[in-house]
Amino acid sequence: MLRKDRHKSRVKTVTFDIWETLLFERDGSSARRSSARCRNLANVLRKLGVEVSVEKVDFALKKTISSLLKIWDTNRDVAHLQQIQLLMKHLFEDSVPLKEEWIGALSSAYVSALFEVPPYLNPDACEVLRWLKNQGKYVGIICNTGLTPGFGLRRFLEREGVVKYIDVMIFSDEVGIRKPDPRIFHLVSERLKVKPCEVIHVGDNLRSDVWGAKNAGLKAVYFLCEAGRDKMAESDSTSLVSLSRKLDGLREEDIVPDATISSLAMLKKVIEKLTVA
Question: Are residues 132 and 265 located together in one domain of the fold?
Answer without folding.
Answer: yes
